[in-house]
Amino acid sequence: MAKRKAAGFPRYKAAAGIQTGTRIRVADNSGARVVEVLTVAGYRGRLNRYPKASVGDMVIASVKKGNPKMRRTIVRAVVVRQKRPYKRDSGEMISFEDNAVVVVNPQGDPRSNEAKGPVAKEAINRWPRIGTIASKVV
């Protein structure tokens, strides 16, 4: 079976607000509560530059807090909120109250069935399956 990638939407160039080592809240009920970003999946940047992520990017992270089954595991997650303001195509500036991710499998399907709090529209455009568990889209 072929690997499924992000939807046909091009990557939206938002201001990168998440970098390597950032601890982020998990906004779903997968069992993880806090993850630490190890790297950004698919990041192609300058040699020796630390990878940065923004809304809609998939990160590879280590679970720092959560239930005992999830702790100390390496997971993939999609950034659904970021504190740093970024500009939308419509010209408006968007920023959230906190940084948050949703834990997903390598194909981009969420590992939970509910996302708490608002989810950015850019993340849902790129990963449509996250939109099915989102309670509020901003």
If you consult CATH, what is the topology?
Ribosomal Protein L14
First-to-last CA distance: 33 Å
Question: What ranges have pLDDT less than 50 throughout 5 or more consecutive residues?
Answer: none
Q: What CATH first level would be assigned?
A: Mainly Beta
Strand content: 35-45%
Query: CATH H level: which superfamily?
Result: Ribosomal protein L14/L23
Order of helices and strands: EEEEEEEEEEHHE
Class per helix and strand makeup: mainly beta
Q: Give Rg in angstroms.
A: 14 Å
Q: How are the strands ordered across the major sheet? A: 2-3-5-6-9
Largest sheet geometry: 5 strands, mixed, barrel
Helix content: under 10%
CATH architecture assignment: Beta Barrel
Number of beta-strand segments: 11
- Total tally of structural domains: 1
Number of helices: 2
Could you say which overall geometry the principal axes of the C-alpha atoms support?
Answer: globular
Average pLDDT, all residues = 91
Task: Write structural notes for this entry.
There is one protein chain. By secondary structure, this protein is mostly beta strands. It has a single domain, classed as Ribosomal protein L14/L23 (Ribosomal Protein L14). It contains two helices and eleven strands. The protein has a five-stranded mixed beta barrel with strand order 2-3-5-6-9. Strands 1-4 form a two-stranded antiparallel ribbon. The protein is globular. The relative contact order is 0.23.
